[in-house]
Amino acid sequence: MPSTVLSILENLGGNRRLSREEAVALKGAKGEDFFRLMSVAADRRDRFWGRTITYSRKIFIPLTNLCRDTCGYCTFVQSPSSRSARIMTPEEILAIARAGQRAGCKEALFSLGEKPELRYPEAQKALTALGYTRLIDYLRDMCELVLRETGLVPHANPGTLSVEEISLLRPVTGSMGMMLESVSLRLMEKGGAHYGCPDKHPSVRLETLENGGRLKVPFTTGILIGIGETWTERIDTLLAIQEIFEQYGNIQEVIVQNFRAKPDIAMWNQPEPSREDMLRTLATARLLLDGKISLQAPPNLASGDYPSYLGAGLNDWGGISPVTLDHINPEAAWPQISELRRATERMGCQLRERLTVYPRYLARPQEFIAPEMMNHLTAMANPDGLAARQHLS
Q1: Which residues, at least 6 apart from 46, have a Cβ–Cβ distance to it below 8 Å?
Q2: Is 0.90 topped by the overall pTM?
Q3: Which of 87, 282, 330, 339 sits in a 20 to 30 Å window from 297, CA-based?
Q4: Which SS3 state, helix, strand or coil, does residue 143 take?
């Protein structure tokens, strides 16, 4: 008699996606079941994406490390009393952007804490000194500055956003992002990873993804695993993302990101997800989500051998910078792009550089691309929608 898992996988003919019940059952995939799951997920990737694995050559601009949320796993955020707390100046931002321009980067990832001016007078004072009341307005102008002065296409990752805020950013960004992380309300309770974090309430984050869908903005989102959620809660988070994709079509990529324990966080003693857990989650995501959604995992956060992610259906390595740190995880160095290329080729795939906007959205510019952005993006793109100038080292 075939196992339950093998029966599920054998019934995934064509492009049929997993049901919630089937995805929940894959938690038990071990041994032969586990390797079959990997194989089916990789085959699904090949059907939609072929053996071309992409990455985005970027710079990382940590606009501010002040935030009104205090997530238990975050080492990026600093309190106003910290000597390292700051809001970057336009001069500092341009210096990074110009270094990225010289290194052949095409994306400028703006990452920042959420609405610190609503919690800290110090943050409001710093913004006032720069001539602003709201951080979102400063972000908008810095995106425009980088775009105008260097041609790098901004990808904004400021957290939760209203329709008005997305409308403000849309003309100066190619894409936007916000990790959904988890739809678990338990994580909002005292002792949970999202306790005391108003911007991490699932309803607020889902509303942001829906707002992006209403305005037809190519969006990156994803799940964060190992922060106290259950396997079923992971599945429900992925399904919530799938529902938004079905309604609006704007979810261009989903990241499966693994929690990493660090000595200076509240969750310093929380166990990290195992390599097997990461692979199982990636493979399940590939089979649960629409095949047109890009599936990504950060290679610098791999707890083991990151090329093995390709065997679980991954098709994209995300943003890799030859210039800047991963400021969210500064202890985890990016792989060298030449190393990433060799590792990808050893798995029987080829590495290609993409833009911050995926080809499928570039092919529908009147629907998904702000008119102000089109000349910048088309100048960088090949006819296939990937980067015209490939930098593989």
Answers
A1: none
A2: yes
A3: 87
A4: helix
